[in-house]
Specification:
Two copies of one chain form a homodimer. By secondary structure, chain A is α/β, with parallel strands linked by helices. Chain A has two domains: about 5-270, Spore Coat Polysaccharide Biosynthesis Protein SpsA, Chain A (Alpha-Beta Complex); about 280-360, no CATH class. Chain A contains eleven helices and 15 strands. The mean pLDDT of chain A is about 95. The interface of A and B includes residues 315, 317, 327, 335 and 352 of A. Strand 15 (about 335-340) of chain A pairs parallel with strand 13 (about 315-320) of chain B, so a sheet runs across the interface.
Chain lengths: ~350, ~350
C-alpha cells in the first residue's frame, strides 16, 4: 500500500500581525492563538496520522532558522527552505518531488501552517477521508471549508454532483473554483449551500500531481527535473533550489493546476476553522474579560470595551477610556489601530519600511 | 536694601504625565515642553534676576536625587528635600525660614517649578514689579494670571480697587480668593474681567510671612521654631525636618494664609502661561505635522489627525486610522488614552498601583 505523507507549507510575509510578526517570523511562528506557534499546532494535529519521517515542512530561507527551532521531532532533512517565494504551484511541485523520492506511489496532503483548528478529532477524520479518496481514484482532493459568513477574503469552491462515499463521508465533484467574490456574490454563495471556502488543503498522489504538472504546467514540470535528479542522488537540495527557483514562474496552485483540471473533488469539512487573517480575528480565540477585552501579556484596560492588547515581556500596556482598539507592543515597536482598520496595516508597514533604517522593523 | 530671593517649589506626585512621570520624576523633571526639564526652564528664567546663591529649590525626598542632578549652578545647600509632602503652607514656612537665615529683611518669591512660560522678558518684568510691590509695603503680592478661557481647574483671585503703581504696573487689592468654580461660574468670572487665575506665585518679605504665620497659622509657626533654630546654628536640616514634618498640618498656603489675610494685593500678569496640567496640554507647545499630530521620539501616524505620541529611545510607535489619541511609551509601560479622557488618569494609576509589584511603575 502507498505511504501517506503530510507537507506543511510554512511561508508568509509576516505583515498582517506586525509588529509581532516580521519577515523572519510570520504568523505561523507566532503564538497568537494558543500557547504554541501555529506551525507547531499544525504538526501536533497531523502527528498521530503519519510517522514524523513522513512529515515535510516547506518554508522560506529567511524563516528557516526559526522554523527548525520550533519543529522539534521532524527530521532535519524534511525541513526544506525555498530560496525565495515562488507561490504555491512551485511549492506543490517541490512537495511532489520530495514525496516521490521516498515513495513514487505516495499520497500526500498539502496543508497551510497558519490556520487555527480546535477540533483535532474532526480534522483528523476529514483528513483520513480525504486520503481515502485520493487512494481510491486518480483525483485531486480538496478539503472545502463550510462557510459561516459571506466572506470576501477567500476563494470559493462550487461543489457539483456527488462523487463517492469515502470513510462514510460524502465527497463531491468540483464544478468550479471562483476567486474572492464581492459582498453580494458572497452572500449568494452562502445562501446556495453549494459553495465552500478554498483553504489551500489538498490531498493527492504523486502521480496525479505529476500528470497535472505535465499537462497544465509543462514549464514548471521541466524546471522541477533538476530537483528530482538531486533528490534521486540524495544530494543536498539548497544548491539546486537556488539555481532553479529564480527561473520558475510565480503562480498559485489553484490557478496553475486546480482550475484547469477536471479530476478535482471536494470533501466538505466538519471541523472548525479560522485563518486568523489579521489581529481582530485573534479575539475570537482568547477568553475575554467581563468588558469583552482580550489580552496577552501585562495589561490594564480602564473604562474600555472590546479592546485587544498584546504585550511582550514585562512591559505594561494600559488603555484608558477607549473601545475596540488594537494595541500591540513588542520590544522595538508598538501598533495602535482600531479593529475596523486592521486590514490597512500594509499601508502602515510601507511607511515603516521607508523610515531610515526601517528594515530593522521588518 | 533687603536682598531678593527666589524659592522654587518642586513637588508633585508625578501622576498626570504617567507613564513618563513617576513619583520620583514628576512633571517638573520632564522635558514635555522644550528641550530642558520644566524645573530647569524655571531656574533659567529667574537666574538673570538674583544671584544663584539666592535661589532655593524645595523638593521632596523621593525626587531629591534627580533634582540635584538637573539643578546645576544652584548651591547644594540651597536644595532642600522635604521628608514628606505637607502642602504649600508648610513649604512657604520653610521658605521663609531659609530666607530669614540669610537675610531677616529679605524679600522672596515663591514660584512653582512646573509651569510653561515662553515670554521670559515679560515674566521678568512682572516679577520685578511684584518684588517692588513687596518692598514698598508689608503686603502679600500675588501674580494673577490673565485668564484666557473659563477654566474650572484653577482657583481664582478677584481683584478689588487699585492699590499702587509698581514699576509702572498697576497692582490691585485682592477682594477674595475663590476655589475652583463650576463651568457657568467660571464663564461669569471670565466675562467680568475682575478675576485672575491663582497660579501659586507669591512675593513677600520674611516679616510679612512670619507675621501672617503667627496670626493665621500659630501651630505651624511653632512647628517651624526648631527649623529656624537649626538654620541659625547652621546645622544640617534633614534630621530636624524628619522630626518636625510629620507633626505639621497638611494645608495649602491659600487656605492657611492668603484667604485669611487682608493685606493681599495682586499684579495681573503680562506673560503667557500654561500649567500643562495633563498630556493634551502638551500639544499646544509642540509643532504639529500637516494633520495636526504632535510627536516626540520615533513615530508614524498613518491616516490619523490630532494625535499625541511620546516615545522613549529607539522604540517606534505607530498609529493607524485613529484620531485625537494620546500614546505614551516608556521602557516599562505604555499609555493609550483619548485626549478627552486624560483627566481620568488617576483612576488608571490606582489600578496600576494595585497590580502585583505595581510600585515599580510608580
Amino acid at each position: 500500500m502507498a505511504h501517506r505523507f503530510i507537507v506543511i507549507i510554512a511561508g508568509g510575509k509576516g505583515e498582517r500581525f506586525w509588529p509581532q510578526s516580521r519577515a523572519a517570523k510570520p504568523k505561523h511562528l507566532l503564538s497568537v492563538v494558543g500557547a504554541k506557534p501555529l506551525l507547531v499546532q499544525t504538526i501536533d494535529r497531523v502527528k498521530p496520522m503519519v510517522p514524523a519521517k513522513n512529515i515535510f515542512v516547506i518554508t522560506s530561507a529567511v524563516q528557516e532558522k526559526a522554523v527548525r527551532t520550533v519543529c522539534k521531532g521532524i527530521p532535519a532533512a524534511n525541513i526544506i527552505a525555498e530560496p525565495m517565494g515562488r507561490d504555491t504551484a512551485v511549492a506543490v511541485g517541490l512537495a511532489a518531488a520530495l514525496v516521490a523520492a521516498r515513495d513514487p506511489q505516495g499520497v500526500f496532503a498539502v496543508l497551510p501552517a497558519d490556520h487555527v483548528i480546535h477540533d483535532s478529532k474532526a480534522y483528523a477524520g476529514d483528513l483520513q477521508a480525504a486520503f481515502a479518496a485520493a487512494e481510491a481514484a486518480p483525483v485531486m482532493v480538496t478539503i472545502g471549508i463550510q462557510p459561516t459568513e459571506p466572506a470576501t477574503g477567500f476563494g470559493y469552491i462550487q461543489r457539483g454532483e456527488k462523487w463517492k462515499l469515502c470513510n462514510r463521508r460524502q465527497v463531491f465533484r468540483v464544478k468550479r473554483f471562483v476567486e474572492k467574490p464581492k459582498q453580494d456574490v458572497a452572500e449568494g454563495y452562502l445562501a446556495s449551500g453549494d459553495y465552500l471556502w478554498n483553504a489551500g488543503m489538498f490531498v493527492w498522489s504523486v502521480s496525479v500531481v505529476e500528470t497535472a504538472l505535465m499537462r497544465h504546467a509543462p514549464a514548471l514540470n521541466v524546471g522541477l527535473t533538476a530537483i528530482r535528479a538531486a533528490l534521486a542522488k540524495k544530494r543536498p537540495l539548497a544548491g539546486v533550489l537556488k539555481k532553479i527557483y529564480p527561473k520558475l514562474e510565480k503562480i498559485s496552485v489553484d490557478y496553475a493546476l486546480l482550475e484547469k483540471a477536471t479530476n478535482v473533488v471536494v470533501l466538505p469539512s466538519s471541523f472548525d476553522w479560522d485563518d486568523v487573517g489579521a489581529w481582530p480575528a485573534v479575539c475570537k480565540h482568547l477568553k475575554p474579560d467581563a468588558a469583552g477585552n482580550v489580552a496577552r501579556g501585562l495589561s490594564i484596560v480602564e473604562q474600555g470595551v472590546g479592546n485587544l492588547v498584546f504585550a511582550d515581556g514585562k512591559h505594561l500596556v494600559t488603555i484608558l477610556g477607549v473601545d475596540d482598539l488594537i494595541v500591540v507592543h513588542t520590544t522595538d515597536a508598538t501598533l495602535v489601530c482600531p479593529k475596523s482598520r486592521a486590514q490597512d496595516i500594509k499601508v502602515l508597514i510601507k511607511r515603516v519600511e521607508a523610515l531610515k533604517g526601517g528594515s530593522k522593523w521588518m
